[in-house]
């Protein structure tokens, strides 16, 4: 158990820089989920923490000890791989005990710890089998077990659930979370799945093109996304984005689609007429006879809710999620509640919060 | 994806397999059958009289202390060739498997010896080891180490083993490299994270996962050493000095072609044939038990 600090981690492969200086401070026992689209550098970041890749710049500090120059073996970490990476020629018990054997623990002690971990994961009956005789879910458990018996300072998970079928994935997700809480081991979990990210993490790191776009709790990321990328990445269907300009001395936005909406939480700094990007989540939109006319193009009834795709006057696309049934076609007037608006600068995409009261 | 083609009638399918069967029968079964038949005959040196002698050839063979000496030579030779060829190839493959600059060129160069004819290879070894004109041979003698593989049986055996093993290293190298590359990288990374140093990782993970390849190559190398090293031995030592490098296959050639004792030579061929059949059976029996991952 330990803290993990990353300071200015950079990584280049040849002339291509894939990580542009990532900083992160992980508290003892915390579960951090690194989430992002493929190619954002999240796996590379994890491999740098593991010591499987050398950073081009920056420092990795585990439990106050600078491990940047150390081999993976010297870092006292455990990693669960996407393809499980079990040793095919060893039994489950040998797989789990491999790391302990290397440390030269007595045989009885190894058997005891392997037995404990197996009991914790419900795989006692599998200890004498070989990996090829196991199902995907069982292999996943063995990989977890191999990580647990070592009692490492840090758990690293590299998309461990993505090879499982949907049902098993939900089950293992809950199990990983329970285990991590129970053992209290500081963990880094890499995934591209936003549901995994939201449910597993104490905090999320949303990666975008080699930067940490936002580091915050799941709800904070959802409620106050730091930029338009995070806003679009977390939430399903994705947040709507509309063009607008700052109006009424910063107290309102004039949408390109027509209406001028006053900010519910106070005026924004900036020049009159400055271009803005307005975000609004599909589930926050409501039908309202006085609202904007939305020309429906596609209606997806999902049973408990309905997702409507349409266009606003001016041609901007808008997605609306309504509870229950909804009209199948035509024009639906939609209201944009001012308290649900997210305001971003149009150029940088950065979140624009109200100016603090002077 | 397996697709089964069903032919109507029997003529067309028979015609289609006929060329293959014909070649096999004409060039394999017929001569092999003749060898088996000859093993039970005895001819005079001029081929005028032939008589059926039953198992007498075999009895004579195994009663001959020189034949048993040849058998011992063959075992030493085969073990030496296989051991050296496998060890060196594995070492080279492990080094070529690492990400190094110019790995492609390195690999191509290592494969080259396989494309060299045995006789040519033997000439190269003569230029190295010949006590008067060989680079190494002369250097050894000048350094005060008496070296002459034409006089010293042990040294001769060493030279033919080296020459034969050198030719087989390329073949083994290709298979070892392919075997190494099919080991999932993440398994080795997992071992590294588990705390295994490179050498320990090699012996506990890489080498066991290579064992199907190693076993396959061991059988192939034994077969090679037993039956395909005639050219190397003939060009380097001709079985000498004093039969020190005479292996089973070379003895069969001497008895048949030089001494014109066809019955004896055939009996030896049959013994060799049985060894091949045994080795092949072992290979087919165990090669199925691959490690799956």
Automatic annotation (TrEMBL), chain A:
InterPro entries: AAA+_ATPase, ABC_transporter-like_ATP-bd, ABC_transporter-like_CS, ABC_transpr_MalK-like, ABC_transpr_MalK/UgpC-like, Mo/tungstate-bd_C_term_dom, NA-bd_OB-fold, OB_MalK-like. Keywords: ATP-binding, Cell inner membrane, Cell membrane, Membrane, Nucleotide-binding, Sugar transport, Translocase, Transport. Belongs to the ABC transporter superfamily. SMART domains: AAA. This is sn-glycerol-3-phosphate ABC transporter ATP-binding protein UgpC. GO terms for cellular component: ATP-binding cassette (ABC) transporter complex, substrate-binding subunit-containing. GO terms for biological process: carbohydrate transport; glycerol-3-phosphate transmembrane transport; glycerophosphodiester transmembrane transport. The lineage of its organism: Bacteria, Pseudomonadati, Pseudomonadota, Alphaproteobacteria, Acetobacterales. It comes from Roseicella frigidaeris. Residues 4-234 form the ABC transporter domain. GO terms for molecular function: ABC-type transporter activity; ATP binding; ATP hydrolysis activity. Pfam families: ABC_tran, OB_MalK.
TrEMBL record, chain B:
Residues 71-283 form the ABC transmembrane type-1 domain. Pfam families: BPD_transp_1. It is found in: Cell inner membrane; Cell membrane. One of its GO terms (biological process) is transmembrane transport. Its main location: membrane. The chain crosses the membrane at residues 12-32, 75-96, 108-128, 156-180, 200-227, 267-287. Gene3D superfamilies: MetI-like (1.10.3720.10). The complex is composed of two ATP-binding proteins (UgpC), two transmembrane proteins (UgpA and UgpE) and a solute-binding protein (UgpB). Part of the ABC transporter complex UgpBAEC involved in sn-glycerol-3-phosphate (G3P) import. Probably responsible for the translocation of the substrate across the membrane. This is sn-glycerol-3-phosphate transport system permease protein UgpA. The lineage of its organism: Bacteria, Pseudomonadati, Pseudomonadota, Alphaproteobacteria, Acetobacterales.
């Amino acid at each position: 158990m330990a803290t993990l600090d990353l300071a200015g981690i950079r990584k280049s492969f040849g002339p291509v820089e894939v990580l542009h200086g990532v900083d992160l401070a992980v508290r003892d026992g915390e579960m951090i989920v690194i989430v992002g689209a493929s190619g954002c550098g999240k796996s590379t970041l994890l491999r740098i923490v593991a010591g499987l890749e050398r950073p081009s710049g920056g420092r990795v500090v585990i439990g106050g000890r600078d491990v940047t120059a150390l081999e993976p073996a010297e870092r006292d970490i455990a990693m669960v791989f996407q393809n499980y990476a079990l040793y095919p020629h060893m039994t489950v018990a040998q797989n789990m005990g491999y790391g302990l054997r290397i440390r030269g623990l007595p045989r009885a002690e190894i058997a005891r710890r392997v037995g404990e971990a197996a009991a914790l994961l419900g795989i006692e009956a599998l200890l004498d089998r070989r990996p090829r005789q196991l199902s995907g879910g069982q292999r996943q458990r063995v990989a977890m077990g191999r990580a647990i018996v070592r009692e490492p300072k840090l758990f690293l998970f590299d998309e461990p659930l993505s090879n499982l079928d949907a049902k098993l994935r939900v089950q293992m997700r809950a199990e990983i979370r329970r285990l991590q809480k129970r053992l209290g081991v500081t963990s880094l979990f890499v995934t591209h799945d936003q549901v995994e990210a939201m449910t597993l993490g104490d905090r999320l790191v949303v990666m975008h093109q080699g930067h940490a776009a936002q580091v915050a709790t799941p709800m904070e990321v959802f409620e106050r996304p730091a930029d338009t990328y995070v806003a679009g990445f977390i939430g399903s269907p994705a947040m709507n984005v509309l063009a607008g300009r700052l109006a009424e001395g910063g107290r309102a936005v004039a949408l390109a689609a027509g209406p001028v909406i006053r900010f519910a939480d106070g005026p924004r700094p900036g020049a009159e007429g400055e271009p803005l990007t307005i975000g609004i989540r599909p589930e926050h939109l409501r039908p309202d006879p006085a609202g904007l006319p939305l020309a429906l193009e596609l209606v997806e009834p999902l049973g408990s809710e309905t997702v409507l795709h349409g266009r606003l006057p001016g041609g901007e696309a808008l997605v609306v999620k309504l509870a229950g049934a909804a009209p199948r076609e035509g024009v639906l007037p939609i209201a944009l509640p001012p308290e649900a608006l997210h305001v971003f600068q149009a150029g940088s995409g950065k979140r624009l919060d109200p100016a603090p009261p002077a | 994806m397996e697709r089964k083609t069903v032919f109507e009638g029997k003529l067309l399918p028979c015609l289609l397999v006929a060329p293959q069967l014909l070649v096999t029968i004409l060039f394999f079964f017929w001569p092999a059958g003749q060898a088996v038949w000859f093993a039970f005959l005895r001819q005079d040196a001029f081929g005028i009289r032939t008589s059926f002698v039953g198992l007498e050839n075999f009895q004579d063979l195994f009663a001959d202390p020189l034949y048993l000496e040849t058998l011992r030579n063959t075992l030493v030779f085969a073990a030496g060739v296989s051991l050296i060829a496998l060890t060196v190839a594995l070492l080279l493959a492990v080094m070529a498997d690492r990400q190094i600059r110019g790995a492609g060129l390195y690999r191509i160069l290592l494969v080259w010896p396989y494309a060299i004819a045995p006789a040519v290879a033997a000439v190269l070894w003569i230029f190295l080891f010949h006590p008067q004109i060989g680079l190494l041979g002369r250097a050894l003698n000048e350094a005060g180490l008496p070296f002459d593989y034409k006089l010293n049986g042990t040294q001769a055996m060493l030279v033919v083993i080296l020459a034969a093993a050198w030719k087989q290293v390329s073949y083994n190298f290709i298979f070892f490299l392919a075997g190494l590359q099919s080991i999932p990288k993440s398994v080795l990374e997992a071992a590294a994270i588990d705390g295994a140093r490179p050498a320990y990782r090699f012996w506990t993970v890489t080498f066991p996962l290579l064992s199907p390849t190693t076993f396959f190559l061991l059988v192939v190398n034994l077969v090679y050493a037993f039956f395909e090293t005639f050219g190397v031995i003939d060009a380097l030592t001709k079985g000498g000095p004093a039969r020190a490098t005479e292996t089973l296959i070379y003895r069969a050639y001497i008895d048949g072609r030089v001494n014109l004792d066809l019955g004896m030579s055939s009996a030896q061929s049959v013994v060799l044939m049985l060894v091949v059949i045994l080795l092949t059976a072992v290979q087919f029996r165990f090669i199925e038990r691959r490690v799956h991952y």
